[in-house]
Amino acid sequence: MNTAEGARGRAEREAWRSAHEACTDELEDVLRRTFTALDDLTTLTPEDFARRERPEAWTVAQILEHTALASSFLLILVAKLRSRSERALDRGDLWPTGPPRIRDVLELAAGNEAWPHPEHMTPVGAFDALRLRTTFSHQATEALAHLRALPPGAGTLHRIRMSRVPGDDRLGLADYVAVLTGHAARHVRQIERTLRGPSRAPELREQRP
Asked: What does the alpha-carbon distance between residue 15 and residue 22 come to, in Å, rounded to a whole number?
């Protein structure tokens, strides 16, 4: 490789890493705002926690619990991606060369299309307001720490498939944090719609004089 080719290769790698860093910065901002909103929602009244968007829908409390459960599971995958990417980085593995997909994955996860959830993400009433608030605080801190633990783009050195993603469904560390953030943001919007609506849980209506 001549000097010009080497310089061009270094410039391309730097541009690639800069693109990943810019996307990660944006993701971090959305994550902070989303989890601030979740924290605010944990201070609702018991009556608001019991509200539903529709009679058959989950209550606000159930939506928050589901969000906490899903985020906990996704953080397990993020931690695994971090560990394996760190090992790949130490080995000197070749980095993927594709552009960052963080924005696209975030938009997909934050969309209005409902994703089927596994049984272990179904709310069962195990979280009170204090546990929700503590859980969301820990999750935001952990997600942000994972995002900043590796050099820009290094989280793509190990990837895990997610079948809901069209095309190349292999996602890296920041992509999974984008899934977590987008999923949480979608449920924040759902709760905001519920709180604006007139409906209340049937049991609360029946208890009124």
From this structure: 10
**Dist CA 45 CA 195 (whole Å):** 11
Joined tokens for residue 130: 């204090």
Could you give the residue ranges of the DSSP H alpha helices within 42-157?
Answer: 46-49, 60-91, 102-110, 129-147
* Structure-token match 């209340």, residue found: 200
Q: Which amino acid makes up residue 188? A: V
Tokens representing 69 are 């459960």
> pTM to 2 decimals?
0.88
Residue among 111, 112, 86 at smallest CA distance from 172: 86
CATH at residue 7:
1.20.120
> 199: which residues sit within 8 A by CB, 6+ positions away?
51, 52, 53, 54, 55
Domain that holds residue 88: 3-207
Contact indicator for 171, 162 with CB cutoff of 8 Å: yes
Query: Cα torsion for 39, 113, 176, 182, to the nearest 10°?
Result: -30
State the total domains in the chain: 1
The residue with greater pLDDT, 75 or 112, is 75
User: pLDDT digits over 40-95, tens only?
Assistant: 999 999 999 999 999 999 999 999 999 999 999 999 999 999 999 999 999 999 88
